[in-house]
Design brief:
The chain has one domain. Helices cover about 45% and strands about 10% of the residues. The chain is built from six helices and three strands, in the order H-E-H-H-E-H-H-E-H. The chain has a three-stranded mixed β-sheet with strand order 2-1-3. It starts with 12 loop residues before the first helix and ends in a 12-residue tail after the last helix.
């Protein structure tokens, strides 16, 4: 999966799929935040960098993962992941990708990432500040729904098998 905003380098696809093919990971993401300076030099707005770092730390802690970035639009999945996760029940909005990762983690799949350069530039599309805030809150809500489901306090169809 590559978001169509021109921020991701398609030359990384063989590396993503190689980790799947070699049975090292079930889900692989491109990580645009190898270092703070590299992400900012690549044009990532400071508020997006800060929000991404905060959300990724919270999501890693709560979902027991160690991804460098949860909000990448460069991803690869195995067929088993796509056949297992009830992704058809996810949002039709930007939060779909976060819901998918929470589901992948909840279903016990192996998540990993590889470095990917940050490429923000004038022609690349990007959601505005207001939509970014909404997306961040919806991302945290995805993790909250998983915990409520796991604790049997509120059943959520996103975490029920197909």
């Amino acid at each position: 999966m590559i978001h169509p905003d021109y921020q991701y380098d398609a030359r990384l696809v063989p590396y993503l799929t190689g980790l799947l093919k070699d049975d090292i990971c079930d889900v692989v993401l491109g990580n645009r935040i190898r270092t703070r300076q590299e992400a900012l030099d690549g044009g990532m707005p400071a508020y997006k960098y800060i929000a991404n770092r905060f959300l990724t730390i919270v999501e890693n802690l709560l979902m027991r993962q160690n991804l460098g970035e949860w909000h990448s639009g460069l991803r690869a999945y195995t067929r088993k992941v796509l056949e297992t996760i009830p992704w058809e029940r996810n949002s039709d909005d930007f939060v779909f990708d976060c819901e998918f990762l929470v589901q992948a983690s909840a279903f016990g799949f192996r998540l990993g990432d590889i470095p990917a350069p940050a490429r923000y530039f004038e022609e690349a599309s990007s959601i505005n500040f207001g939509r970014s805030v909404r997306y961040g809150l919806e991302s945290l809500n995805s993790v909250l729904r998983y915990y409520l489901h796991r604790l049997h306090l509120w059943p959520c169809p996103l975490f029920e098998p197909k």
